[in-house]
């Protein structure tokens, strides 16, 4: 049977068309939910599919999906034919994948340690703080109590960042293993902050209500019957495909295990897609850096030759993580809101692109960074919270990239992440062309420069000592020598 949702004025609409409905609230509902002047709206969770899930129901869009599958098969055949012609045999050892995901036991042990401390330290500590402060009558003692636990929280966040990073560097993890560990580290830190930041106001409100003797201010909402939510809610949030904490989320009725397996199968397919892209278009071009001189002509040709493969890497990464991976976990957890991204491919500006490319991270930045800075610096100034969001996002992205590839290359991040974000008020069609053009150029440059730096650090001797060796790309001195 087809599932339905309630649309405008109670009209039942097929569930698969939910993402096309847009705003389904009536005028009266909007009036009732009208926000006070200057207040920012809250994130709302509703049951809806991911956009591509609905779009793939359309034959014309499904054909594009089939084209990408055909390209994967063609790359596979191309590799086999080249092996037969050059080596006289088929050599599909997939050594690059095995190397990139090497030392997985270290990643697994470190992840289990991170998850263990997230579950058995964060929640019990918050539970103890929120309940114990109810018995403290003196205001000054309660203030000292709060500041002590705030210091403990800051120390924990610092340890949660430093210890996994130290393990990654100590074991010299290869790129895929390193990026997996660092992204999980960032995810758990963001979830920890989301839980603490969301429930501190609840604990303070509960304390104020306990202190009040006015029966009219008694707590009536079940969510406020305790200063700390149940552990089951915290545990669900730790695995749910969202970074914004709620006590309750909209849930689907059942788990479609075939859909889960299909999404995980797509993840595996994308990994092979990335393997063929790097083996065919990246490794042969850059692996001789340091052994053979690279002229400026060869460098320019290499950069432009990486633009299309780099864009394919970008699209594969998006589809693998933000669609297939998150949809698989959402289905297993019956998590109803699958809007992990929006139609970023239609964006006419980078400001829109960053809001729609990764809705999961954007919601966290909006809820726990933008809104707090907005309230802190005054409600009339939106430039400061916007810049703070860009700064934090840039630092975290550069942190992951730098410690994955063991090099520091922030120029492209600043150029494409900040400068173009303020290019607005252009014709939508021209803006979309400009966005795609700069994405092609930017991904080509990223793929080229990081590949050159990676092989330069393998094949070339260091030119500096200490911090300068990390800060200055070795490929600069390697290519000039």
From TrEMBL:
Q: Where in the cell is it found?
A: Endoplasmic reticulum membrane
How does the record classify its membrane topology? Multi-pass membrane protein
Question: Where is the catalytic site?
Answer: 397
Q: Which InterPro entries match?
A: MBOAT_fam, Oat_ACAT_DAG_ARE
- The UniProt transmembrane annotation reads 63-81, 96-126, 147-165, 185-207, 259-278, 298-322, 408-426, 433-452
Tell me one GO biological process term.
cholesterol metabolic process
What Pfam families is this protein classified in? MBOAT
Instruction: Give the GO cellular component terms, alphabetically.
Output: endoplasmic reticulum membrane
List the GO molecular function terms.
O-acyltransferase activity
Transmembrane helix among keywords: yes
* Keyword field: Acyltransferase, Endoplasmic reticulum, Membrane, Transferase, Transmembrane, Transmembrane helix
Family statement drawn from the similarity comment of this UniProt entry: Belongs to the membrane-bound acyltransferase family. Sterol o-acyltransferase subfamily.
Please give the name of this protein. O-acyltransferase
